[in-house]
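Lesson 9: reading folded outputs for more than one chain in a single document. The general rule is that every protein is listed as its sequence immediately followed by its structure tokens, and records are never interleaved. Here is the first one.
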Amino acid sequence: MDKIREKIMEKIYTWQEIANKLQGRILPSVIHEWNMKSRGLHYDIKKSGPVSAEISGTTNEGKTWRYGVDLAKRECGCGQWEVSGKPCTHAIYLFGKVRQLNIEDFVHDYYSVERFKVAYQFQITPMNDKSEWPKVDLGFEMIPPPLQRAAGRPRKQRIKASGEPGKRGPYQCKRCFQFGHIEKSCNATQAELEQELPPPRPKKGKSQGKCSNIFLSYICCNMFLH
């Protein structure tokens, strides 16, 4: 725990030094992300107002799409702007057509330099070594739990959740064919099993098979004689 505290203390001080060197309103990483996203945008635009338009395009698979963008409401039909707080590529393309607007004014304050400085304005107080700590009698002794190896082979893979890919479905009983339990813990009665199971198929008699063989041999002999 003390090592973790030291790491956090050093990390906060490093971010404080970075925050003191930052200038402007928006973090440089966000501005760099905009510059990368604005390259190579080949969209079609149909403006419906000074700051609103329909942005459309075609995917690599040949499917067409269209989203409505409103800069005044800070909304886009794709939903990325509302979720992340940063303008999506469709809004960035529209900002390129509206020259009098500054894109930095349409970003959430979460990505501002001021918020970054406020987040790391505190510092962790340095502490002495453990040998210098005051001795306190708690009245009880806290000991770690006993470590015992479980029976069987150690598990190599974690237990997956029900909705996770690769998770097999619920267990199915081989006796009553219901899900959720196995044959060993099945409580179904014999009457329930007879009611749920389909009726058995009628078995063919041995005499029926012999008669059919005799009939086939009789037909073959007649064909040979003719």
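And here is the second record, again sequence then tokens.
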Amino acid sequence: MRSRLVFTMLALAVIAPATLAPSASATRVSDAQLRAQLRHAKQHLRLARERAQKARADLAAALELQAQLGGGGLGATPPAGVTPPAGMDPALAARLLTDGVVSDDEIAALQTRVSRAKAFVHRRAVRVRNLTRRVRLRRQIATWARHHEWRPLIAIAGHEYGVSPAGLYRMMMLESGGQPAVVSGPYNGLFQYTTSEWARLWNPWRHESIYNGWAQIRATALALSRGMGPSQWPNTYPMAF
């Protein structure tokens, strides 16, 4: 079980940077926006697959038509008895048969169309997979935060900001014992911020509640990455790191 948890945290840490948006919480994509992006991406993927299927069908029909012509006639009209394959796009058939021959260049153009359509489907599929991972990660993060499971969240934030997760966890336990609503004089939350320090411009999550554990974890990881540890946590930082 422990090895599975470690693997999960490492895997999530790899894809978490897209969800952290350290620049400012105001620019962070909301959960609703992310779900809407996923819905649109799925719609675009469906349309891309339909276009790719159409391109493959057109190529197959053109090859069949070329085979019927047996190398193609030389006249300006199709040879007698040549009929487009069932289901073939009439406009494509008319264009291919205008000069009575399906040339290798025309086949090559259709093959290129198929290759491009396939590549476009791949790009759309990758976007859907990435957005799906981000949506699932958001849900998992919300579950961890709701149940005060701080270790995986600390692993994600530590990886993102280059801070030791073990040290970050030790400092949290020294500051609050892992209790997000603890108050000790003017100090509040997991890492015991004053309200004035929490509201400073350096903190992208200053508009979140000071008792939001996930917000405090990210803010603290960011602060430590900027060298604020000794001044902000003079007593517990040396003990934790």
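What the second record shows: Residues 23-146 form one domain.
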